[in-house]
Write a structure and sequence with these properties.
The protein has 149 residues and is mainly α. The protein has helices spanning 6-17, 23-50, 65-81, 84-90, 102-106, 108-126, 135-148; strands spanning 55-56, 99-100.
Length: 149
């Protein structure tokens, strides 16, 4: 992650859930984004195949009501933080059997942003007093997301 992006991530996590993150948290965060985007795309690929398409479309991604609401919160936060160009760069994924439509790929920044808001708020649910998430907080949050996404 570019050094210039670190202050934006720090501001984002502070605005989203009053959290202080550091460089090691951002490495964990990048891993979270990579894994969860891949999981969404695997489900999207299955949905596209079930509907006879050879490209993953926006509607194939399993966007839940909660994730959709977190995406709305992210859009409001992004107006002040301007994180989306950086999130779009983080949106890497392995080769899939199907391609991803341009419209779907263009939405990755917002999807990742929504997942990021949900992640930040999950830390506060796991431990309402947390200010700086530790390894244990990250592991618990990952387990929750693995159950739900």
């Amino acid at each position: 992650m570019a050094v210039m992006a670190i202050p934006k991530f720090e501001r984002f996590f502070r605005a989203a859930a009053s959290l202080d993150v550091d460089k090691s948290d951002l490495k964990r965060y990048s891993e979270f984004v990579e894994h969860k985007l891949h999981d969404l795309l695997l489900r999207g690929e299955a949905n596209a195949k079930a509907n006879g398409r050879d490209v993953i479309e926006r509607q194939d991604l399993p966007i839940t009501k909660g994730l959709q609401e977190s995406m709305h919160v992210y859009r409001r936060l992004d107006e002040e933080v301007e994180l989306e160009p950086i999130l779009e760069q983080l949106a890497s994924y392995p080769q899939l059997d199907l391609g991803v439509s341009d419209e779907t790929e263009a939405r990755f920044g917002q999807v990742i942003g929504g997942m990021s808001v949900a992640l930040a708020r999950t830390f506060k649910i796991v431990d309402p007093k947390v200010k700086n998430p530790e390894t244990e907080h990250w592991e618990r949050a990952f387990q929750i997301f693995d159950l739900l996404l």
